[in-house]
Amino acid sequence: MSVGALTKKILQAALFYEIWDAMKVTFKHMFHRPITFQYPREQRTIPDGHRGALGLLRYGDGRDRCVGCDLCEAACPSRCIKVISQEDPERPLQRFASEFYIDITKCVFCGYCVEACPVNALAMTKMYEYSTHDKRTLLFDKKRLYEVGERHLEDAKKYLYAHNQEKNSDESREYRYYFPQSVLKPTQSQPKHLS
Amino acid sequence: MGLKPATNPDVEAATIELSIDGRTVSAKDGVSLYDVIASTGKIIPAMCYHYTFDPFGSCGMCLVMQEGKKAPVRSCTAKAAAGMVIRTDGDDLFAARKKAVEKHLSVHPLDCPVCDADGHCELQDMAFQHGVTNLANAKQKFIPEDTRSLVLDFNMNRCIACAECINVCKDVLMIDALQFMKKGGFNQVVAKGDQPLACEFCGDCLAVCPVGAITNKYSKYLYKPWQMKKTTTTCNYCGDGCQMHLETKDTEVVRVTSPLSWKNKWGDRTETAKGHGGLCVRGRFGFQYIDSEQRLRQPLVRTGETLTDTPWLDTMQTVIDRLSDIHRKHGPESIAGLITARCTNEELYLFQKLMRAGLRTNQLDSSARYGHLNYVHAVRQAVGVGRPLNDWEDLTKAKAILVIGSNITETNPLTAVRIKEAIRVYRSQVIVVDSANTNIAQLASHPLLVKPGSESFLIDGLVKSVIEQDLVDEATTARHPQAFAALKEAMAQVSLDHISAQTGISAEQIREVAAIFAEAPRAIALCAEGIVRQPNGYHNVLKLIDLAWVTGKLGQPGSGVTTVTEEVNEQGAVDMGVAPEFLPGQARFDDPSARERFGKAWDVTLPASASGANFLEILARIRNGQIKALYVIGENPLATLPASMDVKGTLEKLQLLIVQDPFLTETGKMAHVVLPAATYAEKEGTFTNLEGKVLRVRQAVDQVGESLPDWHIMTALANGLGYDWTYESPQDVQNEIMKLLPGYYNLGQPRRVSPSADAYLSNGYAAEVASRYRNHTAQSTPNDGTQPFTLLTGQVLYHSGKMSTRASGLINIEPNNGRIRMNPADVERLGLNEQSTIRLTSRQGSVQAGVKADPDIQPGSCFFPEHFNEPAVKDLMIVDVDAVTGVPYFKSTRVKIEKVGA
């Protein structure tokens, strides 16, 4: 080791050079905008296309959109959906889902079920906070899914627009609204999009 | 008749040659061009085509180019002709077919997601195949759905007017319940006269509908086709043994479908002689009992007055302790068993093995005793073969069919379809002898409405007039001159005038139908409940065999004397030896060589041959105290036999009554132990149908609750009793049966029997023939005028035994309305109406019931379905026992009818 290098080393040791060098990073960050944020006190802004928990939607007049067609069940790659359908006892000829289950622990958030749905009854929301101590509560039933859909209705609509599932126009909503039409009596008025 | 079939058994069509896609193909002259193309293996789409009926030509999909024609032709309605040059593929044809799909789709609602046919829809497939994505002028029909029918909904928005439903109903089933009607600017399928559909509800229209226009009410919206597990099994209602697909979702049975379907549309019309693959109402709509709430889910053991749920282990311990206790104290003669013919062959075999090799008793019987054994004994006696002599193909191709004492469209609907095809396609003459104007009588060329109970006289008359008119087959009678002389001598005491007075059929008519039967090249006499379940059934079957013999029909291919059975496996029960007189394979129980063979196989000494007891003897021995324990599997004698038999009092005498049944029956309620058994949908095995075909039964769902298959319970019981049985599955039992009865598992292709009466005719015939023609009284109770009505009980189309009354679908169609069916003339004469209550009085007592006018019932007779005991009409009967076969007769009696109210 040369004399110069030795002198430098002693000098650095005497002046606590390493500490100052490390503190440089600290001081630099003191004046820097933080990258992390304080979850859960702070929430992140989520894009409209985000694939979060699934919810079931209702029409404007409060009727269930879901017609129990089982297509989401067929489309689901992780087989987490189970639909049990039957004829609506109050509205003859109307098919509806008497039971609807999504096992969210199995869900891979691919969104295929939303694409398969002919009436846009299913949508994904920005909801992702459903951790629990009891795994059984993660089997979302029909009631829970409608709750999710109600609470996150605006996000669900935005998801459908973002994924081009539904157009934000009256004509498009009209078509979805009247599909599928069951005819009970000949005097029944024809749906607007057909007349 | 239209284009098909070009061949029939008598005339062979000429062979022609034509060119299809450059290949030379030979075909029969005059058949549909579509069939010729299909026979080369090339499938061109066709939505209105089905091989079971004539081509209709409405869908416009089966287009082909024929050389020399500018436009494509519809191949289904075009006849194949010599020298045709046909092209089946090409862009022009694809475009033309696509146009046809677009035409159908433009008026079809796009409600696939909620349609029951989604995923099983020909229009959907065609739209996909032809890439139809854009419909320029789509217009919905907006027709209200017709939900008036009990089992089917008609959504005519989805209809493509292919007319398959109408054609199958009219042409195959000859029911003709559907029609086209112009309504609201569209051609719609409606029930005849636009009324609520009232038909036999076989559901074949539903099966052939290529779209979702006809849907099943019982499973509407409950499924998507891809969600269901499809199990091909054998129906367990009647002896037809139809193949069907049980479609299940998890533990519930959602629907039943048939091999007949629009998906299965390519075939040769002549193949339908073996069955068209359809089902009847019972098979298609009577499945709900399988997962019914009323099913037994736990073994029950009696403690005092009540039956309490008990675990299997405790129950079996009770059964084994008490059974072995009785066996030890009173010997094997104190134990007897009854089993239903709805069990599989394997279970029937195990049952008789348990009784004979285990408990060493020959006191056992099955429900084949209620009638089928009459037929079996008669044909065994005469020709040495113990099963129906003719199969479906024989029936279809017969030139003359004598249907005697069988309401076959109701009891065995699919065998009836074979007779209908004989009428429709092969133009055969059908003679129907019955005491009611049955559906088959309405289709028959020679319906003979005889007085109730006089069928046997009519057979005498037929034999007599065959001999009188010299229609006998010289070749066959000449071989047995002695027998023929004895028959002639017996006939001397029969007079046609007397018969004519007894039956109400003129002597000319009897001669005419006798001539038709005798002169037909292939003639079949089919007898069923009206013969084998009525007094002298055994002798009446023998008389029919006489008729077949003298006319030369016995042993001749395609002719013979046959029967149909009520329960699916009655033939199997006889074949498996569940009767005191038979060992498996119908070996006689007292035949020393057979006894030795089975004794060796089972490593036991069989019970003494004289110790056996059939059904009624078992009841008698319970009464006299000899039998102390009874093991009943699936049978319900308490609800079946009339009160005069005092079954209740008899069963009360037992020290141990074990009932093994899927349901808690009337007999079960009296039992000391009730074991929950599985239904046919929950187990594996085989049934032997009335053609002698051994058909597979496959497990479709898990057993309900803790119920177990009968073979499993019997094996456990045998092991508990210390017999060391090692069966782990029905397959193990099958292996044993295969060793003992080589060739019994015929894979649905029974050996053809060539019946020959030579042994009987040359030996014993002459001595006994006269006795059966002695003129016995027509009714079991003499008619002294105080009881002017004949009361008959029997099967109806919508039910089978008591089990079908547990199927909500069938009860929905035909509930028990407690009404006696009478002729409208009688109803009027007695001053009754639909609201009236009547009292029926026989010598055994009286019951009150409602009235239903039914023009098909003959004046002077009345009818009540045997499936229901509310009111207890069966209790008006007495039981007559056949001296030879021990068959109990209790299906008819004389009654007095009085009005009691409104």
From TrEMBL, chain B:
It holds the Pfam family NADH-G_4Fe-4S_3. Residues 228-294 form the 4Fe-4S Mo/W bis-MGD-type domain. PROSITE patterns: 2FE2S_FER_2 (PS51085), 4FE4S_FER_1 (PS00198), 4FE4S_FER_2 (PS51379), 4FE4S_HC3 (PS51839), 4FE4S_MOW_BIS_MGD (PS51669). Residues 150-178, 189-219 form the 4Fe-4S ferredoxin-type domain. Signal peptide: none annotated. One of its GO terms (molecular function) is metal ion binding. Residues 92-131 form the 4Fe-4S His(Cys)3-ligated-type domain. Keywords: 2Fe-2S, 4Fe-4S, Iron, Iron-sulfur, Metal-binding, Oxidoreductase, Repeat. Residues 14-92 form the 2Fe-2S ferredoxin-type domain. This is Putative NADH-quinone oxidoreductase, subunit G. It comes from Nitrospira defluvii.
